[in-house]
Amino acid sequence: MDRTQEWHELAAQLAVDSIRCSTAAGSGHPTSSMSAAHLLAVLYSDHLRYDVDDPKSPANDRFVLSKGHASPLMFSVLKAIGAITDEELMTFRRFGSPVQGHPAPVPEMPWIDVATGSLGQGLPIGLGMALSMRVDGLAGRVWVLMGDSEIVEGSVWETMANASYHEVRNLIGILDMNRLGQRGPTMLEWNGDAHARRAEAFGWRALQVDGHDVAQIDRAYTEASDGSGPTLIVARTEKGHGVSFLANAEGWHGKALDEEQAKQAIEELGGGRSITITPPKPEGVSLSDGSGAEVTLPVYDKEIATRKAFGETLVALAARPDVVVLDGEVANSTHTEDFQKAAPDRFFEMFIGEQGMLGAAVGLQALGKVPFAATFGAFLTRGYDFVRMAAISRANLRLCGSHAGVSIGEDGPSQMALEDLAMMRAVHGSTVLYPADGNATAALVGAMTDLSGISFMRTTREKTPRLYGADEEFPIGGSKVVRSSEGDRATVVGAGVTLFEGLKAADKLAEDGVNVRVIDAYSVKPIDGSTLRTAMGETGLLVVVEDHWIEGGLGDAVLEALAAGGNELSGRVIKLAVTEMAGSGSPEELREWAGISSNAIVRAVRSALA
């Protein structure tokens, strides 16, 4: 049997197995898998350099199934390379099986690097992987299989522009142009010229092939691997290819075949097969993870904006070769420009493309990097789906949102992050931090470096006074009681800029003989429930003040912590937060207007005690 016939036989097996596992599950996307069977048969047989026994080897090429609904194909490939058994394949979509409806990097599935299924994410992730390889001087390549519906996503074009700008030479997109989307034809159908022209306009090389002609596919993969720049292979394919009643037929998206239909389809494909293949192995490499590098965090003895302290702390972390930083063209506001000056080869300007930035961060961490990604907190909302999917990927990301709340002042509401705490608290396993001064910021940024999961830091635009000494510790999940006495009659809970409003309010109330405890809830999630419950028990009144919408932020975190305590508590919680749409004004004017100023806190405490 010649090589061409071997590829065809493997492709037929992948199509058959895609039908078998989805029919057994009673759901799935077999036709979307069948259209790309030849593409992956050739790729895994001869072009993807990959050690199946060491899937996390830094020497490996990487493959990302961006069209994650074609998971039957992905798992059929894993069976063919010996990663999983046929018995495991046939548990597709069953409760408790790692062979899930869309790929996810669960512990039993180390051959999957990232979760996919929300379309338009594979190429940004692939860019991050390609950048990681370049930082480490590796010869690997990144292959991303995309569907022709998802290429409408803006994140794809953000990434194409950034890949060209950064002169990435090892990123290869494979477009499975099968003409049909979920409800009918795609935007461009089989117009491969239009896809190619668009790619070329973004500085990519475009190669058009018949996606079922294995010789053409082989030649295109060889050309794309020459390192001359990012390449898009536009492969014209058929959805449901190889089966008469499925090929190019509408109405089959996301539908499994019944037993009789599956039997007929498998017969047309030539029956079942038991082909196994071994992808070409890469040459071995070894890398240092950088965790042993000595890092000296900055120390502050005067006021500084926490956003500036964030940037200066990143400079200290540049001593670690695994730390990388991405920014969305606001580096002079987030102060990641400080890191850019210290380690330009590990700083990636992603321009105004927050989705692409976050996707690239996921790709970088998948290959062992420690990425920090920063932009205005309000603009992170654009990339929130990438954050959500990063959690499914079990990704370790460190995010920073500057310019938070009405306190940014005259720029107005479009620039005010007022939902960021709620947004990030809702992410599974996330850590949400809001430091008040420079030393707290430095300590918490240092802690983020080794945190698992998604961590988010909210920074302040204004300079804030020095509150803590250089030796102060800030454990994740902790808080600071910055003022207290035995006779406290109320507790003010703040974080970041509102902590200082709370301290001013405490001074004013003390003049009237009313002692008030003040807590710095710098760790919004996990929050220090023990200290909050103690304060409620001892003072009977908690006033939570935050520069955030009243829904979902610090106030709700405090309420949840009190409710989770398990012990009956008597007392009252008052939430002071933003409730109306802001306009322009000075930070002081806007805090007063929003009812989160020291004066508002004083009024709330006096009213409650009266």
List the helices and strands and how they pair.
Layout: H1 3-25, H2 30-34, H3 37-47, E1 62-65, H4 71-80, H5 86-89, H6 122-135, E2 142-147, H7 154-165, E3 171-177, H8 192-201, E4 205-210, H9 214-224, E5 231-236, H10 259-268, E6 304-305, H11 306-317, E7 323-327, H12 331-334, H13 337-342, E8 347-349, H14 354-366, E9 370-376, H15 384-392, E10 397-402, H16 420-425, E11 431-433, H17 438-448, E12 454-458, E13 463-464, E14 480-483, E15 490-494, H18 497-511, E16 516-520, E17 523-525, H19 529-539, E18 541-549, H20 554-563, E19 572-578, H21 587-594, H22 598-609
Parallel strand pairs: 1-2, 2-3, 3-5, 4-5, 7-8, 7-9, 9-10, 10-12, 11-12, 15-16, 15-18, 18-19
Antiparallel strand pairs: 6-13, 11-17, 14-16
What is this structure, in a nutshell?
By secondary structure, the chain is α/β, with parallel strands linked by helices.
